[in-house]
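Running this now, will post back.
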Amino acid sequence: MINAVREAEMTGGKPGETTGTDHDYIVRCLAGETDDFRHLVTRYQRSVFAYLRGRLRDPDRAQEAVQETFVRAFFNLAKLKKRESFFPWLIGIAGHVARELERHERRDRVASAEYLEQSRMPRTGPRWADWPLEAAVSSLPCALREVILLRFYSDFSCLEISRLLNLPLGTVTKRLSRAYFKIRKRIGN
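Update: finished.
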């Protein structure tokens, strides 16, 4: 923590704030200064967590997926073609990790269902089912959930989401509008 405060004082920023560009940190990591990757983790950890939390619907699994995402990003950093597009690339990795975890979960669920049928044990619902907003967001189709998570959990503007997802701005605003409607309908407001 003391080093973070000193670094902030030297750069004129707040403790923990990263002031370099993604491109700068990536170049330094590839040049052997692997400790600079921590700046990228600090910058994007919350956004990636929010994205994965919405996709996986479980904070523990999302945290595990965040760690796996950053590990894969670190070891594949040399494969990144456009260094100024680090965050979209990172979200792509997070999406792959989420799909893998969902695939494993489906396999586990099938095995569990077979076991439960054999043992006749009652099934329990998900822990988040008591939280109407979270349940409503989780029930959205992936394309709508993705823009909601980026807009409200990661605090990106519509224009930033448009650039990040490589979609027209009108498509982003339309998806947000549809997501709002579905959430209101689900919650009952």
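Residues 128-189 form a domain with the Arc Repressor Mutant, subunit A fold (CATH 1.10.10.10). More later if anyone needs it.
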